[in-house]
Each structure stands twice: as C-alpha cells, then as structure tokens.
Amino acid sequence: GTPWLNRVRTDESEEIMFAPRALSRAADEGIIAITSVVQEDRADELIERIDEQPPITLIGQSADAQPAVIAAHKRPDRIKNLILAFPNGVTKKETKLEYMGYITKTASDRDKVPGPAMRIDAENSFGNQPPSSPRELGKLMMRRFVGSGGLRALASTISGYQGGLLHEMRKRDDAPAASMVLGSRDLGMRPDRIIESLKSANDIDFLLIVNSTHGIQGRKDLMSSILDLTDIMDARSSEREAAKARNEVFDPGPLEDRLIFLEGEPYG
Questions:
Q1: Alpha-carbon Rg of the chain, whole angstroms?
Q2: Which of 4, 26, 105, 218 lies at a CB distance of 3.0 to 4.6 Å from 127, suitable for a disulfide?
Q3: Closest C-alpha among 265, 240, 266 to residue 170
Q4: pLDDT tens digits, 190-203
Q5: Separation between Cα atoms, residue 1 and residue 123, nearest integer Å
Q6: What phi and psi, each to the nearest 5 degrees, are found at residue 17?
Q7: Residue ranges of the alpha helices (H) in 51-171?
Q8: Measured between alpha carbons, how far is 187 from 183 in angstroms, rounded to an integer?
Q9: Cα→Cα distances 107→85, 111, 184, Å
Q10: Is a pLDDT exceeding 80 seen at residue 224?
Q11: Could you give the residue ranges of the DSSP H alpha helices within the chain?
Q12: Strand order across the beta sheet in which 206-210 lies
C-alpha cells in the first residue's frame, strides 16, 4: 500500500485518508489512533510469523514501535512482553505541521539546545569503527537510511499515533506486560512528551531511562538492560496473576516508583 495512506479512528468512526488530511486531524481530542496502512501490513506480517509460536518478547525501536503496538493490539495473546524503545507514534501530534522534519516548535522546545553526540567506547559497541572521513560518514548514513526503509518508512510513520491502541490493549485480560526505554537527551522523542501522552500511568509497567540521544546505537550495556527488563516484567505479570487469583485488583503503584535508570550512567 501507499505509505501516505492512513486509517484514522475515533470513538464514532473509522476512515481511510491520505497523510495531509490525517495530519489535519492530529490534534483532535477524539482521535484514538492514526495508523499507516503500510505499518498495519508490517504488523500483520509480524503476527503471521509468531502466530504458531509460544508468546514472545517483542522489542520495537523508534518507527518500529508503531507496528509493534498495532500487532500487540490485534493479538495480545501472542506477545508476552512488549518493549517500546525510543518509540515513535506514542506521542500525539500537537500541531498539523509536526511531520517530515518541519516541526512547529512549542514554547518549551524553542530554547532547547541539543546535547553533545553520544560517544560509545569500542568495548561497549556492537557497531563498526567510526567512519574515517566525511565521505565515509555520508556513505554510512545513506546505507542506514536505505536499510531502514528510506522515504517509504519515513512517510508511513509521520502521522502515526497509537497511544489509544496501547491503552485499549492494556485493559484486556490477556494484555502483555509493557515497558518503554526513553533517552533523557532524545529531543525527537522527548521523555516528558511521551509520558504526558500516555492515557494512563498503567499503560506501561516500567520506564527504563538512559542518558542518551535517540536509539540503541549498538550499545551492549543498553541492550543488556533492555533484555533484563523481561525478567522484571515477568515478575510483575506473576504478581498481577496472583492478585487476579485472589479476586483482587492489582495496584502497580505510582509511575515514579516504576522508573529504572541505566546503572553507571550520570544523570545531571
């Protein structure tokens, strides 16, 4: 399907429309979700792959968080743990023009100064050595852009909003455990905006906060901590099931008590 085609869902209707029109609805109060048809197709492909397997832990990073949420909403029984890392599509668009890099800055953004680029030591990196010249850097950037789906992937995510789907999914009895990984210096997917966009503090079980810019970036320590989240989420799921067996309503406590900070990192 065309990457510009979106499904816009409200409490009262569901309509297919192109991205510019979908974006004109982005700030509406009644919007439950805006999903790209391309990302829905990706979610269906994912569901098909895992349909005959035991429930899995699903990690969706950046734009890949969108099909991950869609898949979890459609088939929560196939996903044991859902981890959204630096997620795109959870925050609701604040303006009609907040897409394609032409971001209408809010007052709180205007004075923001980007932090220094993350420098990852070789022993803590899954990636290759840094490029040796600006020309090599350009080649690397092009490979990564093409490898991630290029313009098609970008176009299919710009108007996405799945916060309502996450909320609906989490209210189901068979909902997977859900956590997020957020970078304190991620200006594109700012932690404060993501947290403010949640419809309920109970839409996620835990928040792993890392002092970084956007993306895992091949960091071994961050990947290890993300995988460690699965044990914590499994324990929380067991607590929830035990409360259900006792006919009790499980209380996860305030979200501030469910923050996890990456060990050994400065936060100042």
A1: 19
A2: 218
A3: 240
A4: 899 899 889 999 99
A5: 42
A6: -150, 160
A7: 65-74, 107-110, 134-147, 150-155, 163-170
A8: 9
A9: 26, 8, 19
A10: yes
A11: 19-24, 37-50, 65-74, 107-110, 134-147, 150-155, 163-170, 191-197, 220-245
A12: 56-61, 79-85, 177-183, 206-210, 259-261
**pLDDT of 111:** 47
- In order of 55, 67, 176, 252, the CA distances from 245 in angstroms are 21, 32, 17, 16
Is the separation of the CB atoms in 65 and 72 below 8 Å?
A: no
Residue 165 dihedral angles phi and psi, to the nearest 5°: -65, -40
Q: Which residues contact 153 (CB under 8 A, 6 or more apart)?
A: 3, 63
pTM: 0.81
User: Would you say 39 and 160 are in contact if contact means Cβ atoms under 8 Å apart?
Assistant: yes
Give the 3-state secondary structure of residue 225. helix
Cβ–Cβ under 8 Å, residues 56 and 80: yes
DSSP letter for 123, please.
Answer: G
Is pLDDT at 112 greater than 60 in this prediction?
Answer: no
Q: Which two tokens stand for residue 267?
A: 């936060």
Could you give the CA distance from residue 65 to residue 46 in angstroms, rounded to a whole number?
12
Is the distance from CB of 258 to CB of 205 less than 8 angstroms? yes
Would you say 178 and 240 are in contact if contact means Cβ atoms under 8 Å apart?
no
Helices and strands, number each (H, E), in the chain? 9, 8
Q: What torsion do the CA atoms of 268, 229, 82, 204 make, to the nearest 10 degrees?
A: -50
Rounded Cα gap, residues 40 and 67, in angstroms: 6
Beta strand 5-10 with 14-18: parallel, antiparallel or unpaired?
Answer: antiparallel
